[in-house]
Amino acid sequence: xxxxxxxxxxxxxxxxxSSVFASRYVQDPPPRYMLPEKSIPKEAAYQxxxxxxxxxxxxxxxxxxxxxxxxxPECDKLMAEAINKNFVDVDEYPxxxxxxxxxxxxxxxxxxxxxTDRTGQAVGVGTVGSSEAMMLAGLAFKKKWQNxxxxxxxxxxxxxxxxxxxxxxCWEKFSRYFEVELKEVKLREGYYVMDPQKAVExxxxxxxxxxAILGSTFNGEFExxxxxxxxxxxxxxxxxxxxxxxxxxxxxxxxxxxxxxxxEWDFRLPLVKSINVSGHxxxxxxxxxxxxxxxxxxxxxxxxxxxxxxxxxxxxxxxLNFSKGSSQIVAQYYQFLxxxxxxxxxxxSNCMESARLLREGLEKTGLFQIISKEKGVPVVAFAFKGKDxxxxxxxxxxxLRNYGWIVxxxxxxxxxxxVTVLRVVVREDFGRxxxxxxxxxxxxxxxxxxxxxxxxxxxxxxxxxxxxxNEINGDEGILHIPAAKVHxxxxxxxxxxxxxxxxxxxxxxxx
Length: 511
Hints:
Blueprint: H1 9-12, H2 42-53, H3 73-81, H4 94-110, E1 123-127, H5 130-151, E2 160-164, H6 169-177, E3 181-185, H7 196-202, E4 207-213, H8 225-239, E5 245-248, H9 256-259, E6 272-278, E7 290-294, E8 306-308, E9 315-317, H10 327-365, E10 368-370, E11 379-384, H11 389-401, E12 409-411, E13 420-425, H12 432-452, E14 459-465, E15 484-490
Parallel strand pairs: 2-3, 2-4, 4-5, 5-6
Antiparallel strand pairs: 1-7, 6-7, 8-9, 10-11, 11-13, 12-13, 14-15
Helix pairs in contact: 3-10, 4-10, 7-8, 10-12, 11-12
C-alpha cells in the first residue's frame, strides 16, 4: 500500500514517465510503476529524474519547515565523501564513530550533563532525527518503570506519559507503537503550551515520565521546565514516587544555550533525565540527524543495548534502525568545529532579528494577532483578527503559494481549535531581504484574500432609453420603447471561494 498520494488526475492517467530532453538518448519512455526491462544511458536517467524534480518547491522558500536547507560547500563536500560509509560498521569506520562520540559529549556539556561516568564520557547516541531520539528515551523510561514495578510486585501493564496537547506527532506514534497511554494537558485560547500545574495533577503511579517541550511546534514557545521540576519534586516527595522529566528540545535545544544561557531547562534540573534534540533543525545540518542524551548511564537500562560482533568487533547499539549513512554525523561535527559557541550564537541572534522584523511588519498591517512569543525559537506565528479568521488564514496560505512561499495554516488542538494560525519558521537562510520580500508578497496576497472574502460581487446596471418619436402614442400613460441597451459591470472581479479540508489530530505537516 502506498501511503502518500500526491499526483493529479493527469498523471494518474499516464503509465509512462515523460522523457522530455532525455528523448535525445531514449526513444521509448520508461514505465511509471514498473521496473524497465532495459537499461538506459546515465545521461538520460539523470535528465528524467532532474526534470521531474523541477516541479518540487524551492526548499529555501519552504517556511513551514524547521529543517536546515543550506550548508557551506565545504560541508557539502565532506558529506559527499562520507556518503558510502555505513555508520553502523564501527569497527570498519572507527573515526566516524569517534566523531559521533565527540558530538554526544559536546551536546551533553552544552546541556549541563553531570560527569558521573568514571571515564568522564557522556551517555548518548546519534539518530536519524529527533523522533527516533525521543522514542529511544521513551523506551528507556518505560523499561526502567517496568523493572521497578516488577521488583515491587505491582502491575506494569498500563504505563502512561503526561504531555501537552501541543506535542509533535512523534509522541502519538510512540504511544501507539509501544503501547503507552498518552495523557495530554489540553490547551486553551491565549495559552498554547502545557500548563505545568495541570500536568503534575495528571501524574499517577503509572506515569513513566512527564514530557516538556522546549520550542512548541505551534508557536515556538518554551514550556516552563523549571516550574514543572519544582511541582513534580513536591508531588514525588508527597507520594513516594520518582516520576522523571524528559525534555523534547527538538527545536529549542540549539537555541536556548546560546540566546538564554541562564534559562534552567536542562540537566541543571534534577528530575530531567533525558533530552532529545534535532541536529537537522537549529543544529544547522541537512535532514537526517538527531541526538538523544541521558543524564547518566543509570538512566539507560542495559537490556536495551544490543551487542553484535559479526561486523568485526563488539559493537553496542541502541537504535530503532540499523544501517544508516555517516554523512549527517560528519556534517554535525563539521558545524560544531566550524561554528563554535560564538558562531551558533551569531546565527541564532540573526534568526531572532529576522523574526523581529517579520513580526513588526505583520503588526503594522493591523490585521494580525501575533501568537508566538518573543522568547522562544525563531518562529513567527500569527492569526487574523475578526470573525472570518479561519477562512482568511487558509486563503492567505494558498495565495502565498502563487509567489513560491510555503506558509502553513493550521487549527490549534482541542479547546483552542477556534484559533487558526499561520506560521513562519525563521532559519539561517531567511535573512532581511527575504523578510522584506515576504512582507511585500503578503501585502499583495492580502488584496486577493480581501477580494475573495467579499462574497457575491456587486453589479451596476446602466439603462439607456431612446424612444423613437414615431413610436410615441398620444394616449396618456403609454410609452413604447422599441430599442433599449443595458450595460453592466462588476465592482470587483468574479471570485470563487474555496474550502481546505483539515484533518484532526496533530499538525503532521508543520514540523
